[in-house]
Specification:
The chain is mainly alpha-helical and about 240 residues long. It has helices at about 5, 15-30, 45-55, 70-75, 85-95, 95-100, 110-115, 125-140, 165-170, 220-235, and strands spanning about 175-180, 185, 195-200, 210-215. About 40% of the residues lie in helices and about 10% in strands. β3 and β4 (about 210-215) form a beta hairpin.
């Protein structure tokens, strides 16, 4: 069962595909002894925090970031027939308290959101947490109430087949929808093929900066982009 320490952690609220892409990357390389900034070099500071929060909630790392046997087994199962079974066990163990006595056949989005509010999340974090939850539970193959998807919240949930791609091309992906507190999701920006989308929180986390960049960029190109941004906003020293 999930420990009290794990239940106290905020539920995952990063994009689900960013989470699975990170696991794919570890599968293609190696599972580190601990999850720290050095193993997430292309993530923003905020995304690193969200990833560690997700891994802690799911019981895959300890409070100090140390990777446990559960995470090693889950990464090893990626891309195999054992993935769904192992991920399902991880998911239901972590979300057991949220799912307790929840009507999975006829429950409403409001009821589901209330369960997440009880964990201390609100506003945009709550909506993102519900989106992660819906994508994750769909991955387990579990049927759930159609009312959980009211008012467009289903957008962003894995409702159609995805083309197979490498972990590198999926890394740091952000959801292609934005939503208000009621869960409204609208496709507003289309990311072209061979490009990746970065959504970066601004100071105060009241707004976000959006960048759409080629998937393959050299260090000199990153440096040039950095200089362009500094010059544009007058931040150059």
């Amino acid at each position: 069962m999930t420990s009290p320490e794990t239940r106290a952690v905020t539920p995952p609220y990063l994009p689900y595909k960013t989470f699975t892409a990170f696991l794919d990357e570890l599968k293609e390389t190696a599972v580190p002894q601990q999850i720290d900034p050095s193993v997430m070099p292309r993530f923003s500071g905020t995304m690193r925090t969200q990833m560690r929060t997700a891994l802690r909630f799911l019981g895959l790392i300890e409070d100090d970031g140390k990777v446990n046997a559960k995470m090693r087994a889950l990464v090893e199962a990626r891309g195999t027939e054992r993935w769904k079974e192992m991920f399902s066990a991880t998911f239901f163990d972590a979300y057991g308290e949220i799912l307790a006595n929840l009507d999975m056949k006829g429950g409403t989005l409001h009821q589901l959101k209330e369960r997440f509010r009880a964990t201390g999340v609100e506003g945009s974090v709550l909506i993102k947490a519900v989106r992660f939850f819906l994508s994750a539970i769909e991955e387990t193959g579990t049927k759930f109430s159609p009312h959980f998807l009211v008012r467009g919240l289903s957008k962003g949930v894995a409702s159609k087949p995805r083309q197979k791609s490498s972990a590198k091309s999926r890394r740091n992906e952000e959801p292609e929808e934005e939503g208000d507190e009621e869960g409204v999701a609208e496709e507003k920006v289309v990311t072209p093929a061979n490009f990746q989308r970065f959504s970066l929180p601004m100071k105060g986390e009241t707004s976000e900066a959006l960048m759409i960049l080629p998937q393959e960029m050299t260090k000199s190109q990153w440096d040039m982009l950095n200089n362009y941004i500094r010059m544009y906003y007058g931040f150059a020293e």
